[in-house]
């Protein structure tokens, strides 16, 4: 029969073994979601506001080309930006002593980094 201290130590050891995998999953999902969410919101707004043609957003190859471009953007830019954002968020969390878990910190940091990258790219196209 295990004592409460042994059960607690086993639980902490299990969490410590699964933490890197959770951080990686959080980073690799948060970055692309943060990058694509503002872009998809603009495309939905343009579709509801008179169509893509009126705003000059109709892609040359149709919707398939748009989906392919967004997937390429999510993989080529979203993954690296998400990993960078997760790393910076983890450093900030450890310096501030926050009580969030590793996976939540990685996801939120990656999401914010992706959203910031989408905002910067959007501002470059507007200017």
TrEMBL record:
The chain crosses the membrane at residues 24-46, 66-88, 100-126. Keywords: Membrane, Transmembrane, Transmembrane helix. This is Uncharacterized protein. It comes from the Bacteria. It comes from Alienimonas californiensis.
């Amino acid at each position: 029969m295990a004592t409460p201290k042994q059960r607690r130590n086993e639980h902490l050891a299990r969490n410590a073994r699964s933490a890197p995998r959770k951080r990686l999953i959080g980073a690799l999902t948060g970055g692309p979601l943060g990058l694509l969410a503002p872009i998809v919101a603009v495309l939905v707004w343009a579709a509801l506001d008179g169509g893509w043609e009126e705003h000059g957003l109709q892609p040359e190859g149709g919707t398939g080309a748009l989906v392919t471009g967004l997937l390429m953007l999510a993989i080529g830019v979203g993954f690296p930006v998400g990993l960078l954002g997760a790393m910076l968020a983890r450093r900030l969390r450890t310096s501030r002593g926050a009580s969030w878990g590793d996976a939540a910190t990685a996801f939120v940091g990656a999401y914010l980094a992706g959203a910031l990258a989408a905002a910067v790219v959007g501002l470059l196209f507007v200017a």
